Amino acid sequence: MIARTQDYRDAVVIGAGPSGLAVARELEHKHGVETIVVDRAAAPAFSWRTRYDNFRLNTTGFLSHLPGQRIPLTAGRWPTRDDMVRYFDDYVARQHIKLELGCTVNEVVPAAGGWLLETSSGAIRTRAVILATGNYRTPTIPPWPGLSQFTGEVVHSGNFKNAWPFRNRDVLVVGAGNSAADIAVQLANNGARRIWLAVRTPPHLVRRAIGPLPSDILLELFAWVPAKAVDPIIGLSERLMWGDLSPYGFGRPPAGLKATVEQTGRIPTLADELIAAVRAGRVEVVPAVEAIEADRVILADGSGPSPQVIIAATGFSRDLGGLVGQLGVLDARGGLPGGFASHVGNGMFAIGYGIPPNGPLRAIRRAASPLAREVAAHLAAASCATAVHA
Fold it and tell me: Which of 11, 92, 107, 145 counts the most CB atoms within 10 A of its CB?
């Protein structure tokens, strides 16, 4: 446990996910800044431990490591959930990251010379605070009209572990991202009776690899090419890759792939297995959910399938209001200014929010070093100012 005294910690990171671990490592190793990472969970990278059984990274392990330590080659091209959990545990140990787990930060308030964190373990005073709770803190389910009347089961994708509880049942999966696609395929492969996939905005569908090259490496090669130049090329490759998918329920995305990522943060869906299941009739793509009745779901085209289970792969919220909402630093959508990593102001920093400029883990690695440098510069400037006024 952290000793609760009036002495300042140099820096406190809130959140022991990949973002928090990466910036803590950089602060300690490169700048000698004493750093502690606090998290309400009982283990670091806790959300990774609770991912579904067949989870694999959507980006190659070779490019998805944190600063200072690669993912072992034994994890293969696309590491599994268990590979990543082992990697994060080893990262904490080998990088000597100081953790306080089971510690919920209830509020961050300004204090003389820095910040005061009101936590379940007592107050922590710090000269700099780094918010790293991430984009996926709290599961969200849309407030569909009539949801409370539904007599079936409603499950958020964050609570989906495997397909066995849904054998011989009719299931509606809501969403078009990678989690929705993976869950639909798992259901199809493990005995669900009928599976619908409700899609509101048509996603960009890509293969894990095109020839010998993983798709994320190809997209990385286009990182510095403007969307207006590269999106027509990607669009043509998608049509050559899949053909016309409109008879199967997949319309054309409203914007190009790179423009979609830059403007909305929605990454492409890896669809090798999903398209095979859709073409085989094992998964039926249907329009978006508009309302829910006791025993059926009303879709945008007026049809009304009757699932026994709704699995909502409908995302998460940052849920920062209770933590820093009183400080006036959040925008109208509850986000933080400054993009993926930034100095929010007055010694408060943030990493892992907004739209990542590339794969999330890769973005964390690239952002952690410059952010740690900015934190260290702030602490040095604050120390100089204190010395001048002493």
Answer: 11
